[in-house]
Amino acid sequence: MSTRRQIKANIIRYIFFIFAFVSITILCMILYFLVREGVPVFELVSVKDFLFGDYWYPTSDPPDFGIFPLIAASLLVTLCSAAVAIPLGVMTAIYLAEIASHRVKEIAKPMVELLASLPSVVIGFFGMVVVAPFLQNVFNIPTGLNLFNASLMLAFMSVPTICTISEDAIASVPAELKEASLALGATHWESLVRVILPASLSGLSTAVILGMSRAIGETMVVLMVAGGAAMVPSSIFDPVRPMPASIAAEMAEAPFRGDHYYALFATGMVLFVFTLIFNFIADYLSNKHRQVGASTL
Amino acid sequence: MKINLLKAVTVFFCVFCLSSAVLAENLEIKGSTTVLPIAQKAAEAFMKVHPDVNISVSGGGSGNGIKAIIDGTTDIADSSRFIKTKEVALAVEKGVYPVPFGVAYDCIVPVVHPSNPISNLTSAQLKDIYMGKIKNWKEVGGEDKAIVVVSRDTSSGTYEVWESLVMKNERVFPGALLQASNGAVAQSIAKNKFAIGYVGLAYLNDDLRTLKVDGNEATMENALTGVYPISRVLYMFTKGWPEGTTLQFINFVMHPEKGQKIVAEAGYVPLY
């Protein structure tokens, strides 16, 4: 009887192993493919010229493969969206976890999470048709499809991520800490700022980084609302072209295994490195400030 | 009894499929991605009428298509440009005589917002606007507002036409906005009073104001007579004068009621 149960357990274990193995293998193959298709471009341009070149003219003769404007655009869009999304997301999380009454929380939390399920193309369309003309009229700028618009739309997309994870982090701070703080005579506000937030710092920073890595990899929204000018912007209202937008717009028509094709894959590699860095930071932060026991802070 | 009947039907069906696969004629079409939508739709319609013919259509660019004709690896090559002297020499050397068929016109129209007072620009002005030399509408007789230049992604066929016929192979300046499709350009021009863009003839609508180029209006007639400057012919090349199925397919594409209707549906200017 016990052997049969053991066999069954073994079979189940192998099934799980196979599933895990398959998904990791597929990931590795995608990575291999990305590198294999991206590296040949460096026979044409040096890594330095590729990363820091100012001009992106992949189809002219002779071509220029400089993605600095695209990298700058990606970073700026992500930073600006973080500047909007972090306060919004974290403060919403604090409100939901600590201040809101039970009934408000019951309604508000699912609604924030609903934001996450909005398809990015819908957000992009909203930015293009509603926000862009609005910005154009209010700020009297030539085009509403710009860095600022893209940042706002990306912020919409990362707020749910930041909010949900932050809320979990704050809610998981042990009740003893809060109770102890209150018992010592601290007000609710004081215990919130001095005790609860520091205790949930690792969760909060993970939330922020994950939100930002969602923003930097997002394609549809930036393709639709960032404007797409391949230059380093001089103001927040200038159109920009982040890396994913460039890849999405040009990949379909780039000649298979041509220089342009390789250059787009190399851009994909750069993008991958950026998201990887974000994930490493998130991982590092969540390990470093880990709440080990209720008493450690 | 029922099962046997089912088996019989299945076997019959399999045999039928196999035999038709053996008998089916294969037609290979390769080349320009600009002509691809025409070739694709025409192939689908043709195969509906001739179920015994199997047509495979692929892109790869005009150069690759013509190279395939020279090497004999395709029956029809799509091309958005005429064959080059070098390619002709190479073909003749290999004993191949490429025959061109103009199947459609590709016509690109500059457009602005309907509220824009400008109705005509010269080719030189268009070029300067897209090079970033002319930055304000007042320089071409409009309001004192910055021009928002909308362009297409560099790998699109539409951009290719614009680059060769308007830009004369100069570069579009980096500050130009990029949209990934004709539809997206039309959309962004309709939403921006001070924008200029260019779209294929099929994408014009009431939310856009079409500009004359050098005083010539972009109409089908002007494209066909060559008066309108920003248009080009799209070709299909065959290896020698076409025969058999290839001839049938070319005739299908050139037919005013069949292939040319598809040309118009695909957003290009038909020959008739």
Chain-wise SSE layout:
The complex is a heterodimer of chains A (297) and B (272).
Chain A (H helix, E strand, L loop, with lengths): L1 H37 L8 H6 L3 E2 L6 E2 L2 H32 L2 H15 L3 H20 L7 H25 L3 H9 L4 H12 L1 H17 L2 H6 L17 H9 L7 H30 L9
Antiparallel strand pairs in A: 1-2
Helix pairs in contact in A: 1-12, 3-6, 3-9, 4-6, 5-6, 6-9, 7-8, 9-12, 11-12
Chain B lengths: L1 H22 L1 E7 L4 H14 L3 E8 L1 H10 L4 E4 L5 H9 L4 E15 L7 E2 L1 H9 L16 E5 L4 H9 L11 E3 L2 H10 L3 E6 L8 E2 L1 E2 L6 H6 L5 E9 L4 H11 L4 H7 L7
Helix pairs in contact in B: 9-10
Question: What report would you give on this structure?
Answer:
In chain A, a hairpin with a 6-residue loop joins strand 1 and strand 2 (64-65). Chain A has helices spanning 2-38, 47-52, 68-99, 102-116, 120-139, 147-171, 175-183, 188-199, 201-217, 220-225, 243-251, 259-288; strands at residues 56-57, 64-65. Chain A is mostly helical and 297 residues long. Chain A starts with a helix and ends in a 9-residue tail after the last helix. With 272 residues, chain B is α/β, with parallel strands linked by helices. Chain B has helices at residues 2-23, 36-49, 62-71, 85-93, 123-131, 157-165, 182-191, 220-225, 244-254, 259-265, and strands spanning 25-31, 53-60, 76-79, 98-112, 120-121, 148-152, 177-179, 195-200, 209-210, 212-213, 231-239. In chain B, helix 9 (244-254) crosses helix 10. Chain B is elongated, with a radius of gyration of 23 Å. In chain B, strands 1, 2, 3, 4, 6, 7, 8, 9 and 11 form a 9-stranded mixed beta sheet that branches. In chain B, strands 5-10 form a two-stranded parallel sheet. In chain B, 43% of the residues are buried. The longest helix of chain B is centred in the N-terminal third of the chain and has 22 residues, at 2-23. The chains are: A mainly alpha (297), B alpha/beta (272). Chain A binds chain B through residues 55-61, 69, 128-129, 132-133, 136, 142-145, 223-224, 227-231, 238-239, 241, 245, 248-250, 252-256, 258, 260, and chain B through 33, 60-61, 64, 145-148, 153-157, 159-160, 163, 169, 171, 174-180, 184, 187-188, 191-192, 194-195.
